[in-house]
Amino acid sequence: QAAAEGLTLQPSEGKAGFKGVSVNSSKTRPYVAEACRGGKQLNLGTFATAEEAALSYARDIAAMGRLVQSV
User: Fold this and answer.
1) This prediction's pTM
2) Nearest 5°: phi and psi at 51?
3) What is the pLDDT of residues 18-63, one digit of tens each?
4) 62, 7 Cβ separation under 8 angstroms
5) Which residues pair with 23 in a beta bridge?
6) 49 φ, ψ to 5°?
């Protein structure tokens, strides 16, 4: 899905394996996507898979890049 949207999932050394994604193993949707805005953490949602969470993070980063470029 990421490639079809022209996005890249960014790998990381963390437990979830992707930048912007953490794991909360006590949940039924254990993967959490988060981004930083103005020095504050923004929760992008919880997901069943690390790949879904990473895609949400990639979409958010891409959208922010478009907003910055258009200003």
Assistant:
1) 0.86
2) -65, -40
3) 999 999 987 789 999 999 988 899 999 999 999 999 999 999 999 9
4) yes
5) 31
6) -130, 155
